[in-house]
Design goal:
heterodimer; A: alpha+beta; 23 strands; disordered N terminus; B: 3-stranded antiparallel sheet; 4 helices; 59% helix; elongated
Chain lengths: 888, 110
């Protein structure tokens, strides 16, 4: 290696000159030999030239070969030198474990957090969906008063017949089935779809086939396609599953296909797919909105043209079926957007915070490397003075930065590998495609790319800048140009920037924590403590009439009420906090029976003890009684929100309302007998909506179809311990019918926690990021002050020798360090107030500019920064003046 | 790097150059004269193949060049055998002997 470098210094002859020299020398020697053998000089020369042949051609060849050779040499040398540089850098890293650890740790924290969160974002937002041309797959909605809703079969058929920009338009609806076969009965979530559903996504089953349009007809629809998950779980992935018969709600279905595993993200939890098989009557029903619509846009049209056409078709709906379609519109949205839409902003906010933390980490690494560079300034200046070129010095610094950043990146990836499963485990249910998150190649490449990019920025720019000056000139002052180039204000600027960025992240975290606290304190209106809930569905094949279904359920609840340990038990078509339930339009008496005056409300079909089980306070009137049966006057109880919406000026008790049965021409009136408190049934973050309660004994027979013969059974224990009740509920269901599955068994407390899980997850992530950022910023401040103290050892020594008090020195050093922090703080507060707007949707009863949060954050940073500055500053006062002066 | 027999057409010159340089650093002219002398003038070394071979061998790292002073008292490019070159020579020698003895055995058959 040494020989090669020496050679490279001495062998600096252009190839052209080398070739000319060598050939003419050859010619001269040949001439001399010929003269020695007796030829006269001129003849010898001529003979020599003759023997050499076409020397111009030889020279050409040699020049080409020589250039080629030199290029190979240069590359080999560069690589060898770089390897030397890397070895040197590794040795340096070993020799300075403290410094290495700070840089590696800084980057590990920054890159680890980025990589883990980026993996989540990649899986949820960026990874393409498992079907072709995702830009052509649309979700189509009908709207009411500009809000997207489900669609009725009649409206679906109307749109399908008219849409020319879509091919095809498919409909699907979620439902759940009791699945029975030769195994334990279980409850499965199912997707009923039109046969065209498969064409929309252009997906075919991995095994077997999809159902045809012919099978999507009433009477011929006894076929089922399984999800990959169900196939694995229940059939062990066996091929002979095709042709087997499954009983869904007691009806036989033949298995004809199994969907690919990748499609499960689209199926969104559904485990079987069956034809929806609309009857001709169903296709003329316009007022029951239960369908989701999906479509493939024809390639010749744009999304805007699709929406234009949908708007025109909706106009037709308002005209042709005016009775059910006042305020009706229709729009489409890209399917992938509709799936990830609500998560996009949250994830982007997190990603932004991650980016800020990464910038803080890179700023820190930059600061540390700059400090190193400053310490080595003299060495680098000497190297430059003895002739090391600019490229040579930059390369060496690059090697050192690369070694450190790659070590940091490696540590970061390891940290992310550890953090990602923890993140996924901590996530709430219902984040789409989160389970797919893994540290994939893209994520890894991104992390390493970030590390390399920051190495280049961190290491190379200052050394490039430094070597752009005449280094030799600066040797005299003992520091050299490199130190000169790393002006202290660069480092101060970095500190200020870090402080500003960390304030933004801290403020975001503080706002989210405050929201979480606020959320926890919101009363949801019921007492969930100890209440256990399970879901039970009675298959229509065995439980054929509404009366049988009702009496069976009543029997279940009376068995349960009489069981030991049960204080109260009740049924509800949809228990609060665990689902969304059925909506019904409701018209108070006295208003015209038109669409505009309908109040959309959440319906609950309940048994009399319901309000006791939930301890839902009665505000006015009475609760339901055993005497409220179908033949008695029909009654209902409404919540306060509905009371305000439907009877703004009068006392609602005793008023009449029509809903749920009987059309506008023959209203079935129900008397409001009571008003109960509002329940935040979708969790504390959601405002109460209008809700009403009907006695289960009074609901119209067709209502059993709306709830698919499925109810929630709830029980409150006598001693407050729900654990023992699980067996009691199972026992009561078994006593009714041993073939019935019990599913969704859990406490309402769990349900309540789940409604807040999403925001808690985001809050935890943001708090982790903020803590990381604060730690990094404090490290950065510490390193700058420590460096400053080291630089000013002599000066501090002199001042102490002249009698300055240590306290004064500490104050000055700390003050010096806090100046940039304060500047950054002010900028950060301004930035945080501006950035808070992105958070608005995630905040609960906290202003994005909440002064308390911002103030706390500012104080926290100042305290941490002061602490970081005081430690090295105090060390400065312990400097022995005599030694300081001597060493310096 | 072992040679296939076809390579001998090109490779022999390189092998002879390597052998020549075991005597110590010398310039291209001396290499040519020495090979001619040693082969009893049966192997004329042309400048048009000698120097390209030297440049290629330099690139391969078998020989190194350095500036020296020739018998004319002028700056001259001297070639020196490297360790890699010495190893290559050993491999070439072995391969050549195996080749030669195989050919000899065939030719000796009646």
């Amino acid at each position: 290696m040494a020989r090669r470098s020496l050679r490279s210094l001495l062998w600096r002859v252009p190839v052209e000159e080398e070739v000319r020299d060598e050939l003419s020398h050859h010619l001269d020697l040949l001439t001399r030999d010929l003269m020695d053998s007796g030829l006269p000089p001129a003849a010898a020369r001529a003979e020599a030239e003759r023997r050499m042949g076409d020397s111009a051609r030889i020279a050409d060849t040699l020049q080409r070969l020589g250039t080629d050779r030199d290029r190979a040499f240069a590359l080999r040398e560069w690589i060898a030198d770089f390897v030397t540089d890397v070895r040197f850098a590794l040795r340096q890293a070993r020799l300075q474990p403290g410094f290495t650890a700070s840089v590696v740790l800084t980057l590990a924290l920054g890159l680890g957090a980025t990589t883990a969160i980026f993996s989540v974002v990649h899986a949820v937002l960026l990874a393409p969906f498992p079907f072709t041309e995702p830009d052509r797959v649309l979700s189509v909605y009908t709207t009411r008063q500009d809000r997207a809703t489900n669609t009725s079969a009649g409206n679906f058929d109307y749109i399908r017949q008219r849409a020319t920009t879509l091919d095809p338009l498919a409909a699907a609806a979620f439902i759940s089935f009791n699945l029975a076969g030769d195994h334990q009965p279980e409850r499965v979530s199912a997707l009923r779809t039109t046969a065209s559903y498969f064409q929309v996504f252009q997906v075919s089953p991995a095994l077997g086939r999809a159902y045809t349009a012919d099978e999507d007809q009433p009477g011929r629809n006894g076929v089922v396609v399984l999800s990959h998950g169900l196939w694995q779980r229940r059939f062990g992935g066996r091929m002979d599953v095709l042709g087997q018969t499954l009983h869904l709600n007691g009806e036989p279905y033949q298995v004809i296909g199994v969907m690919p595993a990748s499609f499960s993200t689209v199926m969104d939890g559904a485990e079987v797919m069956v034809p929806i098989a609309f009857t001709p009557e169903r296709l003329t029903m316009y007022d029951e909105h239960f369908l989701d619509m999906y479509a493939r846009r024809r390639a010749a049209f744009t999304d805007a043209q699709v929406n234009d056409e949908l708007a025109r078709i909706a106009e037709g709906l308002r005209r042709d079926h005016a009775r059910y379609n006042v305020d009706r519109g229709a729009i489409s949205q890209r399917f992938d957007e509709s799936v990830v839409g609500s998560f996009r902003l949250r994830l982007l906010v997190l990603l932004g915070a991650v980016a800020l933390v990464l910038v803080i980490a890179c700023g820190n690494a930059a600061n540390l490397l700059l400090a190193r560079l400053a310490v080595r300034a003299r060495e680098l200046s000497i190297r430059a003075a003895v002739g090391a070129g600019r490229g040579r010095i930059v390369r060496q610094v690059l090697a050192e930065s690369l070694v450190l950043t790659l070590l940091g990146a490696l540590a970061g990836v390891l940290a992310a590998m550890w953090a990602l499963p923890a993140l996924i485990a901590a996530a709430p249910e219902g984040v789409p495609r989160l389970a797919d998150a893994s540290l994939n190649v893209t994520v890894l490449a991104t992390a390493v790319g970030l590390a390399v990019a920051s190495a280049v920025v961190v290491g190379v720019l200052p050394s490039w800048w430094a070597t752009s000056r005449d280094l030799r000139r600066d040797l005299g002052d003992g520091k050299g140009a490199v130190a000169g180039a790393i002006n202290p204000w660069v480092r101060q600027l970095l500190i200020a920037a870090q402080a500003a960025l960390v304030i933004v992240v801290l403020a975001a975290a503080a706002l989210m924590v405050r929201s979480a606290i606020n959320l926890q304190q919101v009363p949801i209106g019921i007492d969930t403590t100890g209440v256990l809930r399970a879901r039970v569905g009675l298959p229509a094949a065995q439980y054929r009439t509404a009366d049988v279904v009702r009496t069976s359920f009543e029997q279940l609840v009376s068995t349960l009420s009489a069981s030991p340990g049960v204080a109260h038990a009740a049924l509800d078509s949809q228990a609060p906090l665990v689902g969304t339930g059925v909506s019904n339009g409701l018209s108070p008496e006295g208003r015209p029976l038109r669409m505009e005056s309908v109040v959309n409300s959440l319906a609950h079909f309940v048994t009399p003890d319901y309000f006791r089980v939930l301890r839902l306070p009665l505000r006015e009137g009475r609760m339901f009684e055993a005497a409220d049966i179908r033949s008695a006057p029909l009654v209902m109880i409404i919540n306060e929100t509905l009371a305000r919406a439907a009877f703004p000026d009068t006392d609602p008790v005793g008023k009449r309302v029509t809903c749920c049965e009987g059309g506008p021409d023959s209203p079935r009136w129900k008397i409001v007998v009571g008003v109960v408190a509002d329940v935040r049934s979708r969790g504390p973050g959601n405002a109460p909506v209008p809700e009403f309660y009907l006695p289960l004994a009074q609901i119209p027979p067709e209502a059993w179809g709306w709830v698919n013969n499925t109810l929630d059974v709830m029980a409150r224990p006598t001693d407050g311990d729900p654990a023992a009740l699980a067996g009691t509920i199972r026992g009561a269901v078994r006593a009714l019918d041993p073939s019935l599955p019990v599913y969704g068994l859990g406490t309402l407390d769990d349900g309540l926690r789940r409604t807040m899980a999403q925001s808690r997850f985001n809050t935890v992530l943001m708090s982790l990021l903020a803590a990381t950022g604060l730690l990094l910023a404090v490290l950065g401040i510490y390193s700058v002050i420590a460096w400053l103290v080291a630089q000013r050892t002599r000066e501090i020594g002199v001042r102490l020798a002249l009698g300055a008090s240590p306290a004064r020195v500490v104050r000055q050093v700390v003050g010096h360090g806090l100046k940039p922090v304060t500047v950054g703080l002010v900028l950060g507060i301004v930035g945080a107030a501006a950035a808070g707007r992105c958070l608005q949707g995630q905040l609960f009863e906290v202003s994005p500019r909440d002064p308390l949060s911002l103030g706390l954050v500012a104080v926290a940073l100042l305290l941490a920064a002061t602490l970081a500055a005081v430690i090295p500053a105090r060390r400065a006062t312990r400097i022995d003046p005599a030694r300081a002066l001597h060493d310096a | 790097m072992s040679r296939s027999p076809v390579d001998y057409l090109h490779g022999t010159l390189e092998t002879l150059i390597l052998k020549t340089l075991t005597r110590g650093p010398m310039h291209g002219y001396a290499v040519a004269r020495w090979i001619e002398g040693a082969t009893g003038e049966t192997f004329p070394v042309e400048e048009g193949s000698l120097y390209p071979a030297l440049y290629r061998m330099e690139k391969k790292g078998w020989v190194e060049a350095e500036w020296g002073v020739s018998e004319l008292g002028r700056r001259a490019k001297l070639y020196r055998l490297t360790r890699a070159g010495r190893q290559q020579l050993a491999r070439d020698t072995e391969a050549w002997q195996a080749f030669a003895s195989a050919v000899t055995r065939v030719l000796a058959r009646v």
